[in-house]
Amino acid sequence: MSNVRAYCKKIYEARYFWMHLARIELKNKFRRSKLGILWTFVSPLCLTTIMSVVFATAFHVEIASYAPYILSGILFWDVLSGGFIGGSYSIISNDAYIRQFNHPITIYTLKTAIVITTSFLIALISLALWVLFLSPLNLLVVLFTLPATVCIFFVLAWSGVTIAAFVSTKYRDYPQMAPLILQTLWYVSPVFFQQEMFEQNALLYAWFNANPITHLLFLLRAPFLEGTLPTLTNYLVSIAFVAVLALCAIRVNRKMAHDIIFYI
Question: What is the pTM of this model?
């Protein structure tokens, strides 16, 4: 316990350093761009428009209701893929700092998780504006549920970044493999496929209910799209899934942090 406290104390003492790194990464992400950080807001809207037209035509659904469904899925998926794919280089890209300073390695994955979560909150404005136009009363429920949802998504992002960063530093094939795995998961999760499409097959519907991504998505979709609170099951499954990932991330960090200097 004393070692954990000492480790957390080191992270806290270096807070100005890793918060500064997070600000730099956010600025450099859209450096020399005309829209700058607004791309975080504009990009999911453009992608939503394209996908809504294509899939609404293919599946014969109403665009007005289907578009925010897709947008919420894209926003969540950016958090998930940002962690498990985008976080792959959060240690490698900071090798100069790691060689010079004796800070806990966790600060570099923590920094990336902060960037992912901040980008998510900015992009979330697009969904909020859409809901404000269609169902403004839903935002009252959103204000109540959003803090818990953001905390869960932040832990999800940090866990993904930590696992991806350590594994990809030691095994350089990871950044090529991870997108293939996540792409498969994308197609078998209700990111843009609606629940009715899974109900047509008993096995797919069972997977729909057991899939933790379904419940994580409902943390966004229930308040934003339906104006209701996520169910207790949604919270329990989401928290349990994120907790398991966080424990895996802590274990990976504890096991590989001391030797990481040999792989960068």
Answer: 0.91
